[in-house]
């Protein structure tokens, strides 16, 4: 049985048994917060538990490294929608120790892409078209620096209201301990 078939079989039972009822909530976050974090599998249940966030409490955005690589990309758009349309009034960026984006080099990803059948002429075409593929696929040196960078990018976005606090934290993926890097209440102007 394929993974997809297994998921669909489970889903049919899930819906038939009405297990979804315990997850029902509104689209508005009860704690009025948007959280940008990493897609690391260790954080799936640990992060909400460590933050005391339950289903319906927060808008959680995940990507590799909790990185905002472009001020007008999908991550920033999601944060702004969370604030303007979904009633969030705070933002948290939560990176984690031992992140796979730490020290990630484009050459490693490109070698694996080539080994999986991606024609390297595609990379040349992208670069000729103005895409900086090496920058796009490069991680960061320190998780703390990345979190602070993402906080600054959010805080200084021209569409973000000045009164919205933007916090920066790093979580330990083994224990759930949070280290505060940026207290958004200290840097918020009204």
From TrEMBL:
The keyword Metal-binding is assigned to this record = yes
What is this enzyme's EC? 4.2.1.1
Q: Which reaction does it catalyse?
A: hydrogencarbonate + H(+) = CO2 + H2O
InterPro entries (alphabetical): Carbonic_anhydrase, Carbonic_anhydrase_sf
**Which chain positions lie within coiled-coil regions?**
none
Highest taxon listed in the record's lineage = Bacteria
Please give one Pfam family short name. Answer: Pro_CA
Q: What are the entry keywords?
A: Metal-binding, Zinc
Q: Per its UniProt entry, what is the enzyme's top EC class, as one word?
A: lyase
Cofactor(s) required for function per UniProt = Zn(2+)
Q: Which family does it belong to?
A: Belongs to the beta-class carbonic anhydrase family.
Q: What is this protein called?
A: carbonic anhydrase
